[in-house]
Amino acid sequence: MSLAPRLDLRQSQSLVMTPQLQQAIKLLALSNLEIETFVAEELEKNPLLENGGTGGDEERGASEPAEAPEPDFEFEERDGPADASELIAGGGEASGEAALDVDFAAETFHHDSGSDTIGAGGGLDGSLGLTGAGGGAAPEDGPDFDNLGSADLSLADHLMAQAGASVAGHDLFVAAHLIDQIDEAGYLTAALLDIANRLNVPLARVEAVLATIQTFDPTGVGARNLAECLALQAKEADRYDPCMARLIDNLDLVARGDLARLKRICDVDDEDLADMIRELRGYDPKPGCRYGGEPTLAVTPDIFVARRGAGWAVEINAATLPRLLVNRAYYAEVSAGPQDKTSKAWLSDMLASANWLVKALDQRQRTIIKVASEIVKQQEAFFLKGVAHLKPMTLRQVAEAIEMHESTVSRVTSNKYLSCARGLFELKYFFTSAIQSADGGDAVSAEAVKNAIRTLIQAEDPRKILSDDTLVELLNAKGFDIARRTVAKYREAMGIGSSVQRRRQKALEGVG
Asked: In sequence order, which residues have a C-beta less than 8 Å from that of residue 338 and are 6 or more positions away?
């Protein structure tokens, strides 16, 4: 074998993902609200992009330059994404739409007017959107700012306002530090000795300031544990007698439902114990939650599904989709002026990036509708009859039906929510494992089995709690071939206690 240097020519093939393709794949996994953030960043970087909601259709159409480049091939114009009826029937997709990459040499999608933008067309029947219209545009008279309430007062601000009127001098600094250590539920999370050492003040002084804070509204705030929180509320209600104190000191027995030991410890009869437990249930274990914390954000659906005649209407939530336009008038104006080679290359890159983004968002919308339509097709029994008729389904089954890769379906179903007459569901909810039928029939969904377990437990007699073995027998009678350990696993996954725990809970409810 010769060791001398030489030159060889070799031909090989490899699959290379372009940056545009990588970004388009990432867009699939984003929800509509995350897409809004992404588009806002692109609008800041690219001067040729603009929000379609800022200009009228007529104005944009009039500003379109006559010398705008035309596509090199013919294509069928559409008003928006493929209609759901076409997708459920298996059509509505062009032969090249499955590819997420973009050919910048051919400007296939000309979003130069409001009527051509993503989400600009009306809904399937104009009634699936959040506002009753499929366009997703703002109301004619603008947004209703009166309905946008101001943020609630935080717990820390509420406590500091009371401290300013109740604590004076250097103690106010200690009070501010203690309030800063109170969490959203209203509990003090730091040890008093650590706070005293950190502030270099006597421990007795910190305890005195904490005692003052524990008199603030809401009652129970500043407690170091649940027992102290309930004790503060009992004292405020003038119900903190020795019997109630012993009951609060033995909350573990209350949780276990050991009523016999509680009666001996508290030295009360059945009637007094029932009255004490009823009083205890009226207290707030998390008094701070009524003030502080970030507001809970409601889940915004990405897809709407509604019954239309003998079929189903599937529509993207256009109210949360950006209406993105390519400002070709600005591009024609800038390109017509004097510019050097660098500026010309930069302008071409901006135009290519803008065209790609519009195409990628359009392709994302079509892919989501295609996947959602196949889910509706395969799970039609669920939408008609409920969760008991949910069929086992995998990502592979949907991917094979729509002729896409399984990873693409996985990205589409991530962080996406579907709204229908039965409620709001994550797309991942419809993908469940299969449980074999006891009578040899079709397999059933694991979610349907969970629903059957939940229904049986909710309907059980408080005097005859169903054990896991009894649940297995009842499920077998319903046609579910399931083992006892599987019943226990599903029950724990749903947050339902064992038969012993449920019996104690029913006993406490009967006492209360």
From this structure: none
